[in-house]
Amino acid sequence: MELKAFLLFLLLLLSTKPVKTCDFPAVFNFGDSNSDTGGLAAAFGQVPPPNGETFFHRSAGRYSDGRLLIDFMVQSLGLPYLSGFLDALGSNFTHGANFATGGSTIRPPNRTRHQSGLSPISLNVQSYQFNDFHVRTRQVQGIFKQLVPKPEAFTRGLYTFDIGQNDLTGGLFLNLTVDQVKASVPDILGQFKTVVKDVYDKGGRFFWIHNTGPIGCLPYVLEYLQINEGQMDKNGCANPINELAQFFNRKLKDLVNQLREELLEALITYVDIYKARYTLISQAHKHGFEYPLKACCGYGGKYNYNIHVGCGGKVNDNGKEIIVGSCKDPSVMIIWDGIHYTEAANKWVFSHIVNGSYSDPSIPLLLACQRKRD
Known about the structure:
- This protein is of the alpha/beta class.
- The chain has helices at 2-14, 39-44, 69-76, 113-116, 123-136, 153-156, 165-173, 178-201, 219-224, 239-262, 273-282, 343-353; strands spanning 27-31, 96-98, 158-162, 206-210, 267-271, 314-317, 320-323, 359-360.
- Strand 6 and strand 7 form a beta hairpin.
- Helix 8 (178-201) runs parallel beside helix 10 and helix 11 crosses helix 12 (343-353).
- The model has no long low-confidence stretch (mean pLDDT 94).
């Protein structure tokens, strides 16, 4: 798959006949903290420093030291960074909107944010927000009309999805077994399907769907679930948890194939984020990274992560209050805060998915509006 995608990419570069790229006028993103660019911060308070320090040099509503995959994606498309839909100050939605919020799930959570850490802005709520946005962009007048997408952007734009991780970990943190969480996957994906079809009914035609990553390699999972040595793979990741993620991904891919049959005008690209991220973690040193399972911004323990004190929080260290800060060099770290990834890791993953190497069909992001030719 990877070689095939690379050869296609090379062929496009060497072709004497110009290849028409998609020229997406807008991107509309749905997701969780892996792609949140300010939604949760607007609703529940700013993300504390040192988040954002590497690229933005300030807190920028992102749970990372810098840019996320969605940032690199829109940048490669020649578009500005997406504003969070909930962020009322200084936002410009001309080229799309980001409905993602940190802690979001596909299924609505049945506990409060305080109890679970999950966002009340689940995928169905994000869908309601999109529907409202879709209607109201046609009603705005005056100078505000310059800050929203043109009507054609909704049919020519790219719809990106990166969500599902919290549905899996949320179940595990409620002390459900792996098998019990697996049993919930059909209902989770049924609700995902409803949202995709709703976007399609509103005119969306081009979809870029990420599967979920290797959550069994993340410190917050490894610490909270107390995985024993016998359940670890050779890279130190939790086998049962990664197998759960892969189970979810197989069912998601089956759903994508089903949607392709039902939504005849849709072009849906399924992106294997799991494979890309696990490749980076398992080959960290080869690619210039260190301590693949350790958090850069954290405090204490095997993984430099404390489930009670997050990045930017305060902790008492030998009678002295200190702020949990970042490591010396985030550019050589993969994990940012025990839950999310560093800008360097996001950049590496993006560079390997943008050409279609990890996609089905194996076409580059810039051609995601075109049907793959055999």
